[in-house]
């Protein structure tokens, strides 16, 4: 992967939505008059997987990240089932599923898929590394709970994955030796009542937060006259931020 490439959630969501629209339009109303039972069942599972994918996209757009991750296992599992029925299962296996709801375990499906499609070599290893995490989010396991209730310092990030714009000042001056120097500073404001940043800094001392700029306000800040600067000195909405617990460190840091 190119080291310069950046992953932006809104961009990736647009790609996912476009992919979902394309595949759904191809599958909607398709007839399987001459297809095997297994391939029909496979197409049904793949269509369900697409529904899950769109639900995940919708939840991420609404910043419901834990709920989106909860759907990752059923989305992945229905995709594997769809591929297994389409490329590895037999008609008798598909008919048994339709009659009894019985289906081989997912590892058995993956191994059969790998045999049928050598290009999927490595899928079983990926499955082994991710399956416990997928189950944890689906069933509300310790990973989810620890991420919400672990004590310690917190790290802040904007929930849509975009770079964080911070209001700052800069100046250029000559030092005592006559050399030009550039200086920069970030602006901060009081955060005693901010739902998130009130938890920062030492107990008993004033809470501070940097001045975060909405994406569309970068140019306005850079060109605003000094008389308008105070209009930007407002707390950033807490519901647009996420805080990730970190391991307890030096309480004085």
Major sheet characteristics: 2 strands, antiparallel
Which structural class should the secondary elements be placed in? alpha+beta
Radius of gyration: 26 Å
Relative strand content = 5-15%
Bin the helical content: 40-55%
**Roughly what is the average pLDDT, rounded to an integer?**
80
Question: How far apart are the first and last residues' alpha carbons, in Å?
Answer: 36 Å
What's the total count of β strands? Answer: 8
Major sheet: arrangement of strands: 1-8
How would you sum up this structure, described in words?
With 253 residues, the chain is of the alpha+beta class. The chain has two domains: 9-149, no CATH class; 154-245, hypothetical protein yedk fold. The chain has nine helices and eight strands. The strands form four sheets. Strands 1-8 form a two-stranded antiparallel sheet. The chain starts with 8 loop residues before the first helix and ends in an 8-residue tail after the last strand.
């Amino acid at each position: 992967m190119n080291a310069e490439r950046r992953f932006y959630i809104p961009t990736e969501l647009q790609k996912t939505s476009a992919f979902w629209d394309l595949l759904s339009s191809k599958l909607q109303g398709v007839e399987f008059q001459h297809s095997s039972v297994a391939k029909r069942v496979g197409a049904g599972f793949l269509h369900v997987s697409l529904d899950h994918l769109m639900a995940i996209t919708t939840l991420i757009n609404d910043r419901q990240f834990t709920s989106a991750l909860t759907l990752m296992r059923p989305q992945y599992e229905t995709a594997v089932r769809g591929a297994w029925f389409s490329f590895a299962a037999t008609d008798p296996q598909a008919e048994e599923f339709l009659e009894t709801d019985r289906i081989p375990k997912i590892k058995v499906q993956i191994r059969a898929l790998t045999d049928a499609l050598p290009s999927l070599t490595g899928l079983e290893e990926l499955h082994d590394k991710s399956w416990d995490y997928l189950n944890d989010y689906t069933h509300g396991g310790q990973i989810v709970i620890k991420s919400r209730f672990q004590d310690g310092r917190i790290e802040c990030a904007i929930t849509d994955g975009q770079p964080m714009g911070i209001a700052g000042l800069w100046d250029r001056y000559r030092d005592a030796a006559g050399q030009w120097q550039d200086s920069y500073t970030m602006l901060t404001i009081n955060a005693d009542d901010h739902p998130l940043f009130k938890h920062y800094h030492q107990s008993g001392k004033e809470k501070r937060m940097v001045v975060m700029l909405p994406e569309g306000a970068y140019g306005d800040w850079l060109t605003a006259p000094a008389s308008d600067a105070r209009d930007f000195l407002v707390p950033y909405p807490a519901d647009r931020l996420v805080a990730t617990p970190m391991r307890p460190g030096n309480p004085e840091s």
